[in-house]
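Each lists sequence, tokenised fold; shown next:
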Amino acid sequence: MAQARRVVKMAMALALLLPSPASPQVATAAEVNGTWKDRTKILRVWALGNQGLKVEFHGTYEYKAGGAWTANTGYASGIAMIEGVVATFKPEGADAGCKIAMTFQGGRLLVDQRGDCGFGFNVVASGNYRKTSSRKPDFDN
């Protein structure tokens, strides 16, 4: 009986030390800051404080027309707000229905675009990005 109580006490003490599965994850500035790439797309991200992130997107959709390669492009910039590991971003000047969700997951950035964000035909921000640099990005503006 005494041994059973000790086991229960040890289990309770251990439970206090381990993070709860329900505990919210929080992305740090070091995890989000930098340049992220997905084939023909680039996202530049920099933490500003107060859960704000400066974000810049450049995307390209390449295709052949009349035997020659050409491309449609898209650009967006603005401030995203991060909560936990998910940042939401509505580019400056984009339609009201435009929403870009960015989920930071251990060195990867999963991006999901909803609605029309005003990019060139077939250019979307959605994708699976990998970090190529942790340095402060050189933003266009």
About this structure: The chain is about 15% helix and 50% strand. Residues 7-23 have pLDDT under 50 and may be disordered. The first strand starts at residue 34 and ends at 38. The first helix runs from residue 2 to 17.
